[in-house]
Amino acid sequence: MEPNLNCGNLSQPEEAAEMVNLSKVCVWKSKKKLLILLIFFSALTLIAVIYKYQLAYSIVPAKYLYLFGNITMALQCEIAKDSENVNTSIKGICTINSVGRLGNQMGEYATLYALAKLNGHQAYILPAMANYLSPIFKITLPTLHDSMKYGILWKEFHVNDWMEDQYGSIQGNCVMFAGYPCSWTFYHHIREEILHEFTFHDFLKEQTNTFLRRITGERKNVTYVGVHVRRGDYIHVMPDVWKGVIADKKYLDTAMAYFRNKYKNVVFVVTSNGMDWSKENIDKSKGDVFFSDDPKQSSPADDIAILAHCNHTIMTVGTFGYWAGYLAGGETIYLTNFTLPESPFLKLFKYEAAFLPEWIGLPADLSPLLPEKASK
Fold first, then answer.
1. What CA–CA distance (Å, rounded) separates 330 from 310?
2. d(CA 325, CA 356)
3. Which residues contact 118 (CB under 8 A, 6 or more apart)?
4. Which residues lie below 8 Å from residue 261, measured CB to CB, with a gap of 6+?
5. Tens digits of residue pLDDT in 28-78
6. pTM of whole model > 0.85?
7. 319-328 vs 102-119: helix axis angle to the nearest 10?
8. Do 150 and 54 form a contact (C-beta atoms < 8 A)?
9. Which of 144, 150, 158, 169 is nearest to 69 (CA)?
10. End-to-end CA, the chain
11. 268-285 residues labelled b (16+ CB within 10 A) or e (exposed)
């Protein structure tokens, strides 16, 4: 006896097939609803986690850069595996504020470079700093795009304008240095590396050498002395805000006489943001003084390249002149004690941290800052 395959309304094969398909559709719709609910609640959970821990805007980019930094450091270690001082890993990333003009930017870059190396961090510069420095120098630190900068939860760390012991053990995976550091105490122990970072592009070298050859003329065995005269806003800022002075004619005459007496065939190259004053007050009668704006207006890039290619330096005040002396090497004469003892500037600045010990300091004439004696 054959089994009965009929079951209610499913007596016909066509009806049975239609019922099976309908059952599959119902199951698929149920699974679809379940999947939508699962996605919805997963999204809510993810949003809550992101909001709570700021994963999307801090930790994820930081970890990405941290991983990138580790890869970079690993490659460096592979290249320099024979060196005893190679770090095998990095502890985090760091950058520094990009404030001020060229001299400040150079000081911030050099400080960042040195502190990152000291603390085992991968250093990144901000786009504003790259815009200042990369057209002039062959810098090597990578640039951190703004979209990444604002996506990282930084630990801000203020640095003074001199090195302190605590700067050798800075905690944090993502550190943002702040301040206006421009002191040899941060990086002089790696001077050659800093000088390498501030290698000029070839076109600036060629342009500078052409300028120096032109002003040299028929002279032989010339000693070039770069002179930077800082004026501009300092004419008012130094006496009114910082209770200080800027270089005067007497200082420049004394400094130039030193080099004229010590070296033969001296050529002075003057750069300044107050060129009219410089041309009126610097003695040109000996025919050994030339100005960087001859025959055309010079830029800060032109001026720093000229000063750095000189043998010796006369600086006045400011970070631009400091870097001129540091890059040129040789002898540097600087203006010392250019503020009154009670100047608030001395809370931010230390003479011994600003100028190399071997540099030659000439005292400033502070009499313009002193109250006039009552007439008898």
1. 9
2. 10
3. 167, 168
4. none
5. 566 667 777 777 777 777 666 554 544 344 334 444 444 444 434 333 333
6. no
7. 60
8. no
9. 144
10. 146
11. bbbbbbbbeebeeebeee
